[in-house]
Design a protein that fits this description.
By secondary structure, this protein is mainly beta. It contains 2 helices and 32 strands.
């Protein structure tokens, strides 16, 4: 018994090769790191291949992967509203989701309802009326009564509403939170500023851009003015922080791409402005053809013309936020609407659809089985919601 104890004690006292152990441990860690790196590289290569395969894939047909029953109300106008849509008429407005269910509805009586949508916020006003209603995805958030007829409204992504009214001697412009609380207002006159021709608001509701039309020495002229309703604008008269005159030109369109980028379209030019506090003109693109329609995405501006080159009936020129030309798309199809979604631009009407990349590569061309009232993008690039007279279809491009 004592001999076994002595042998065990001798074994316990044998020296340990720490240097060799550390070297072996280092080799094991190095092998694991190498294997991990190889796997990551393989996954990256597969990801790049899949990405470019999807990006360059040309679709030839679509498959209906889901349908729910829904029928439009007679005389209703339908517009997208986030992942849902709105249908409105002089009698009221309804929000319907992709399952065909009414999320909310609100009755009113209007002669000529105007609806502005930005993401999941919407505003409704009666042209020449005195009421404005503001909604989000859950329903009514604010109700506004004004003393003068409403002429124009625009809406930020957060639900801030800018409203142009028509008074006897002045043209007031009001700003409201989505709960209806008044933020600020200022008054313009024909003699001082001109008549507000177009209005736009930044995504956060801080900046408002207004295009004024006035007469200068017998010539119709425009002015683009920017108002800041944050801290910077509080110290300026009427919150005016910058302005640009365009002699002899009409500027019927102004809008914001984001909180720092705005653009305006005149009869002969595209003007880009940049700045979160005091927007400045960073680029002016000369236009030689008459613009038929204006669209924009999160990073692009698209202008549609009649195509005089003969390549198609229409041409859409796409510019980036700096005013640099991005691509030009010629097409023959008569269109009801155009929208940007991700890296694509979709052109469609009730019976047909074209999908291009923003670089001008055709991704899909085809017809619809049912008359389409509205086409809505989804979070998955090749899937769309089709709102038709017979129901709501989820389609997958193939």
């Amino acid at each position: 018994m004592r001999d076994r104890k002595n042998r065990r004690s001798e074994e316990d006292n044998e020296p340990v090769d720490l240097i060799g152990y550390k070297k072996e441990l280092g080799r094991i860690k190095a092998r694991k790191a190498a294997i991990t790196l190889v796997l990551l590289l393989m996954l990256a290569v597969v990801g790049v291949v899949v990405f470019f395969s999807i990006r360059n894939h040309v679709y030839t047909e679509y498959e209906v992967v889901g349908t729910v029953e829904w029928h439009p109300s007679a005389g209703a106008t339908i517009v997208p509203f986030g992942s849902a849509f709105l249908s409105y008429s002089p009698d009221g407005i309804h929000c319907t989701n992709a399952k065909g269910m009414d999320v909310w509805s609100f009755p009113y009586t209007m002669q000529s309802p105007m609806v502005e949508v930005n993401g999941e916020c919407a505003a409704v006003a009666d042209r020449n009326g005195r009421a404005i209603y503001i909604f989000d995805k859950n329903g009514l958030t604010g109700e506004i009564s004004v003393n003068s007829p409403v002429q124009h409204i625009c809406l930020s992504a957060g639900g801030v509403v800018a409203a142009v009214l028509d008074d006897v001697t002045t043209t007031p412009i009001y700003l409201f939170y989505k709960d209806g609380t008044q933020i600020s207002y200022f008054r313009t006159t024909m003699s001082r500023s001109g008549y507000p021709f177009a209005i736009g608001i930044s995504e956060n509701g801080r900046l408002v851009g207004v295009s004024y039309l006035y007469v200068d020495n017998g010539q119709m002229t425009s002015k683009v003015a920017f108002y800041n309703f944050g801290d910077v604008g509080r110290n300026e008269t009427d919150n005016l922080v910058s302005g640009y005159d365009y002699q002899g030109r009409l500027v019927p369109y102004i809008s914001f791409i984001d909180n720092e980028t705005a653009f305006a379209v005149s009869n002969d030019g595209l003007m880009l402005y940049e700045g979160a506090q005091r927007p400045t003109n960073i680029a002016t693109v000369s236009l030689h053809d008459e613009v038929r329609a204006v669209y924009h995405g999160s990073n692009q501006v698209g202008l549609v013309y009649f195509d005089k080159t003969g390549a198609g009936r229409y041409r859409m020129d796409i510019y980036d936020k700096k005013g640099n030309p991005y691509s030009s798309i010629s097409f023959d199809m008569e269109y009801d609407d155009i929208f940007f979604t991700g890296e694509n631009v979709v052109i469609y009407n009730a019976t047909s659809c074209l999908v291009y990349t923003i670089k001008g590569k055709l991704k899909y061309e085809g017809g619809f089985e049912d008359k389409v009232l509205l086409m809505i993008p989804t979070s998955y690039g090749s899937r769309y919601q089709l709102v038709t007279e017979e129901g709501i279809h989820l389609i997958q491009l193939r």
